[in-house]
Amino acid sequence: MKNENKEDLRIQRTRNAISKTFAEMLQNMNYEKITIKQLAELANINRKTFYLHYNSLDDVLEELLQERIDEYARNFPSSAEQNLPRLIKDFFLYCGEENVFLQHIICDKSCSLIHAKILRKFRNLESKKNENREFKYRQNIIDAFLETALLGIFRQWVADEKRIPLDDIIVLATQLVCNGMHGVKT
Questions:
Q1: DSSP sequence for 115-129
Q2: Among 10, 114, 125, 148, which is least packed by CB within 10 angstroms?
Q3: Between 2.40.30, 3.30.310, 3.30.60, 1.10.10, what CATH number should domain 2-54 receive?
Q4: Cα-Cα-Cα-Cα dihedral sign, residues 142, 143, 146, 147
Q5: What's the pLDDT at 136?
Q6: For the chain, what are the domain ranges?
């Protein structure tokens, strides 16, 4: 039994080192430029050790994102109710404060393939199973709009160095997403 615990601790330490190093690299580099060789060197592990734990960098990224999504769900359980204004507020509160990792992922153009996945996970859409094709295609359009609008607003806010206070950007984003340009007083 003691050997199993030691092994589990070693596995956990190695996975933590990989995760932590990868998250740090993502904050300083484009995702597409990160290599397993660089990651292994910085995490102070062998490349073979990396492959004992993960098949690819995508797997590490998926695990990191899932951890953030789980943390989000613990902190903002009301978002699961699909209340769009609440989702927007919680999204900005969680990603906009000091969550540098998610901010970088959302703003990094090389991570564009995972942006929709992030938002779907935030909205908990993957648990919604509906066989109605018309509903599915309609929902796809709604999701595309929400992804483009909400993530676009977030990216621009970060690019502008968050010069609009958090509470104000939440109100503006909610007005724009929920009511379009007609909902904004200029």
A1: HHHHHHHHHTGGG--
A2: 10
A3: 1.10.10
A4: negative
A5: 76
A6: 2-54, 60-183
Instruction: Dump pLDDT digits (tens) for 42-82.
Output: 999 999 999 999 999 989 988 988 888 788 778 776 654 56
CA distance 140 to 136: 6
Residues 79/122, Cβ–Cβ less than 8 Å: yes
Terminal CA-CA length for the chain: 67
Burial class (CB in 10 A: 0-12, 13-18, 19+), 169: buried
Q: 164 by DSSP, 3-state: which?
A: coil
Single-letter code of the amino acid located at 155? R
Question: Which helix (H) or strand (E) segment is 66 a member of?
Answer: helix 57-75
Q: What is the enclosing helix (H) or strand (E) of 101? A: helix 100-107
